[in-house]
Design a protein that fits this description.
Layout (H helix, E strand, L loop, with lengths): L2 H29 L3 H13 L3 H15 L6 H47 L1 H6 L6 H13 L5 H7 L7 H27 L3 H35 L2
């Protein structure tokens, strides 16, 4: 069997596993989204002692790889268990490890397959994505703005012209404000300040809606740019 064909089958096997894992794990993570679920997960982590750190880290890595799982639950629990900045460090480590795995899997297996599916003509139309500097700026904005599908973006970015080092630096650093807000909310919840927790998430919700609208505006501008830059 040709090397290209092996890569193609491995790519589709990986996508199939991710889809199945998403279907199986989403209900589990969704159950943790309630106050009762968060307390249950927090108790489990607490009972594990120091190993609880590695459990939270592993869940965060899994959340990044299985992109449909909401990351806020993991970030909230890490903040509740290890404080605002302790939770932030654990989450950032998980993000870095998860995104590293995605980058090398997608860059090794996915690029040729995706280009073949999309067709060379469609790929050539995405000229702004072939400019490394513009791509880096766009990625930073998308990872920084609340409400954007950051974990899904991790799967797409390695398929275009961006090296690993700028990709991992941009994606991790730009996520800090979003993760920090969730770990801070978790920390205030753990301290019993429910009012402040609700206020934080109300602010996050408003910023997320604004972020989604801004993201749509940016993508429309990029699409118009593609239409004229030929």
């Amino acid at each position: 069997m040709k090397k290209q064909q092996v890569k193609k089958w491995l790519f589709w096997l990986y996508i199939t596993v991710i889809v199945l894992a998403s279907a199986l794990l989403y209900p589990v993570f969704a159950s943790f989204a309630s106050e009762e679920g968060i307390l249950s997960l927090e108790k489990m982590v607490q009972e594990m002692g120091i190993w609880g750190v590695f459990l939270v880290l592993a869940i965060q890595i899994l959340q990044i790889i299985v992109a449909v799982i909401p990351g806020e639950v993991v970030e909230f629990v890490s903040g509740a268990m290890y404080g605002t900045f302790g939770g932030l460090l654990i989450d950032l480590a998980g993000v870095a490890i998860g995104e590293t795995l995605i980058y090398f899997i997608m860059s090794k297996l996915g690029k040729d397959v995706v280009e073949k599916i999309a067709g060379s003509e469609k790929v050539r139309k995405l000229k702004f994505l072939k400019n490394e500097r513009r791509l880096e700026m766009l990625l930073f904005v998308l990872f920084f703005i609340p409400g954007t599908p950051k974990d899904t973006i991790c799967y797409v970015a390695p398929l275009f012209k961006i090296a690993f080092k700028p990709f991992i630096l941009i994606s991790v650093i730009a996520r800090i404000p979003s993760i920090l807000s969730s770990t801070y909310a978790g920390a205030t919840f753990s301290e019993g300040d429910i009012g402040k927790t609700i206020l934080i998430y109300a602010i996050i919700a408003v910023i997320s809606i604004a972020g989604i609208l801004l993201n749509q505006y940016i993508m429309k501008r990029r699409e118009k740019g593609n239409g004229t830059d030929r």
